[in-house]
Design goal:
The complex is a heterodimer of chains A (328) and B (263). Chain A is an alpha/beta fold. Chain A folds into two domains: 175 residues, HUPs (Rossmann fold, 3-Layer(aba) Sandwich); 127 residues, 3-Layer(aba) Sandwich (Rossmann fold). Chain A is built from nine helices and 18 strands. In chain A, a hairpin with a 2-residue loop joins strand 8 and strand 9. In chain A, helix 3 crosses helix 4 and helix 5 packs parallel to helix 9. The termini of chain A are far apart. The model of chain B has no long low-confidence stretch (mean pLDDT 95). In chain B, helix 3 packs across helix 4. The radius of gyration of chain B is 22 Å and the shape is globular. Chain B has a nine-stranded mixed β-sheet, with helices on both faces. In chain B, strand 4, helix 2 and strand 5 form a beta-alpha-beta unit. The chains are: A alpha/beta (328), B alpha/beta (263).
């Protein structure tokens, strides 16, 4: 079994959740693995990150360099290409940074690449069999990867259960001297924080969330009427924002807002993992979708196979009916 | 600016429910409606908008077979001036790295300043653009949501990061960018537009013309292979309501009220 390395993500002095998930993933590949964590960055904050990572990993490789004060995927790829031994298996989280870093890293390390893995099936000789999803989660696939000459594998955030701390902290090895000067042809300038609108969907107890099933902009009104009757807010999934039917600030998901409502009405939403990643706090999920095979039905509490354009107006009138009765 | 956009013809998930075939080892491919991969369409639109501002040409390239010509023609109807089909029996069974190697073969025959791909296709891999950039030693950025052309062979770009925030960078040309959906509003393509480009020849190139060998492409070179498709039984699944529309609506109202959602 090749040696396993894990890229540790951190930002503004905060360790990413993936650090604990990726060691769990490494143990799924090889229960006896003693993975090495790689922590790259700069400044005094790096020490406390390393100390946290040492609680999880038996060995931590630290690389400090002023050019790495912001996690620039291009420079981090250069560092990893220098320090990771050829033939290793390298694990990275499949988030916006992993997507930026990992495919090119696999080329530079001359290793196989498997993206967005959600489970490990088996390891037989040099063949690692993993589970991925395709078509927005409508179907899963077993994928075989020949790891004889190494592999870079990105793991879906949240797919692997985190592990407990080690009994004794891992050893710290400083690799900074091996890196040399770093220059980037992609230079970080700034972060633009997403604009907020009049409605803050993160503060609502009930969300009427619409997806591609709403079909056109004029139909958004149907969801708004229901939300109004319920005293709820309208949120949405990515395709609705892409089509400019609602503002970005209404989007729930890994590239949108994280919401914690009590009740989540998923209306015409298929349930891609990027969307589900934005729903926290274990709300009661009611899903309405025309497609009985939509992945959203796997995570919802209650499901209805119906056309939202027909069902939502019916629901609105039932709510108004109940409100009317209550008013009397 | 000379721009190359790498595109792919994929089953259209807004037109099809993807299901397993009766043997249970592949998706049911009969009667699937195919179209241009969604983020690739945004990439072509972005390329056309850049060229409209600063001049240049947009070429679209795909790796595939004869049936994939239709997506090239569709993107030419949008305004791309050249379509290129990279096709060879040797290419079959290529993994992501194989596809990137084939595209690299084409890129090196041209003189492109900017190469765009969609962020990801139906397999959700998001890999070919980053691999291609690394093979070419070009800078790369993924999940790009805006592009501004600067002087001195540079672009100012924004990437989508967590929480709807955007990371802004400057990047040197030539480079490879993977384009996220929503970056623009892709123009409509009508039948008339497609008919207008129907007779434009689309050149094809095979392995030898691209300087590729068996060791680099196709199933023999692939280190990563899909074994099968399956539908997992995940969790307990939803309790499905099976009443009439009115009954279901009534039950939902009661459930929402019971969960404290009607105040």
């Amino acid at each position: 079994m090749p040696r396993i390395f894990v890229y540790i993500a951190h930002k503004n002095g905060v360790l990413d959740d993936s650090a604990a998930e990726l060691i769990a993933a490494a143990k799924k590949i090889d229960a006896t693995a003693a993975p090495t964590a790689i922590v790259i960055g700069s400044g005094p904050g790096l020490q406390s990150i390393c100390a946290e990572v040492q609680k999880l990993y038996p060995e931590v490789w630290q690389t400090s360099n002023e050019a790495l004060s912001y996690p620039n995927a291009e420079l981090i790829r250069k560092v990893l290409t220098k320090i990771v031994p050829r033939g290793s298996v390298t694990l990275v989280a499949h988030d916006h940074f992993g997507i930026d870093l990992a495919p090119g890293l696999s080329i530079k390390l001359d290793a196989a690449f498997v993206p967005d893995v959600i489970a490990i099936d088996s390891l037989e000789a040099n063949f690692l069999k993993v589970v991925r999803q395709e078509f927005g989660g409508q179907v899963s696939a077993h994928v075989n990867c020949d790891i004889a000459s190494g592999a870079v594998i990105t793991m879906r955030p949240g797919a692997f259960k985190t592990v407990e701390n080690l009994s004794a902290p891992g050893t710290l090895v400083d690799k900074s001297a091996e890196v040399g000067p770093l220059t980037a042809s992609r230079r970080y300038l700034e972060i633009i924080i997403s604009e907020t609108s009049d409605v803050d969907i993160t503060k609502h107890a009930v969300l009427v969330s619409v997806g591609r099933g709403i079909q056109e902009k004029d139909n958004i009104g149907i969801a708004k009427e229901l939300a109004e009757a319920l005293g709820a807010a309208v949120s949405c999934s990515r395709p609705v924002v892409d089509a400019k039917w609602l503002q970005k600030s209404r989007q729930v998901g890994s590239s949108g807002k994280t919401v914690k409502p009590k009740v989540y009405l998923a209306c015409g939403i298929s349930g891609a993992f990027q969307h589900l990643a934005g729903i926290k706090g274990n709300p009661f999920i009611i899903a309405i979708n025309k497609n009985s095979k939509a992945p959203i039905f796997q995570v919802a509490d209650v499901g209805i196979v119906d056309d939202i354009l027909e069902f939502l107006p019916e629901l609105t009138s039932k709510v108004q009916e109940l409100r009317g009765v209550a008013a009397k | 600016m000379e721009i190359l956009v790498c595109v792919k013809r994929v089953p259209d998930t807004s037109e099809n429910d993807i299901e397993l075939n009766s043997a249970g080892n592949d998706i049911e491919r009969d009667d699937l409606v195919y179209s241009i991969n969604e983020s690739d369409n945004y990439a072509v639109e972005e390329a056309l908008q850049i060229v409209a501002k600063v001049g240049g040409t947009v070429s679209v390239v795909t790796v595939g077979a004869e049936e994939d010509e239709e997506v090239l023609r569709r993107q030419m109807a949008m305004g791309a001036s050249h379509g290129i089909l990279l096709t060879d029996p040797q290419f079959e069974g290529s993994d992501g790295r194989g596809i990137a190697s084939i595209l690299k073969g084409w890129v090196q025959k041209g003189n492109y300043d900017l190469i765009l791909t969609g962020v990801q296709a139906e397999d959700g891999a998001a890999q070919v653009g980053g691999m291609l950039a690394a093979m070419l030693d070009y800078p790369f950025a993924s999940l790009v949501t805006s592009i501004e052309v600067l002087a001195n062979n540079k672009l100012k770009i924004a990437r989508e990061i967590e929480g709807g925030n955007r990371e802004v960078s400057e990047i040197d040309l030539p480079c490879v960018l993977s384009i996220q959906t929503g970056i623009n509003e892709p123009r409509y393509v009508g039948m008339k537009g497609i008919r207008a480009v129907q007779s434009i020849p689309i050149p094809t190139y095979g392995a030898s013309e691209l300087g590729l060998t068996h060791a680099q492409v196709g199933s023999a070179a692939a280190k990563v292979t899909r074994v099968d498709y399956f539908v997992p039984a995940l969790g307990k699944g939803a309790r499905m309501l099976s009443g009439t529309r009115e009954q279901n609506a009534q039950e939902v109202v009661e459930l929402v009220a019971a969960k404290g959602g009607l105040k």
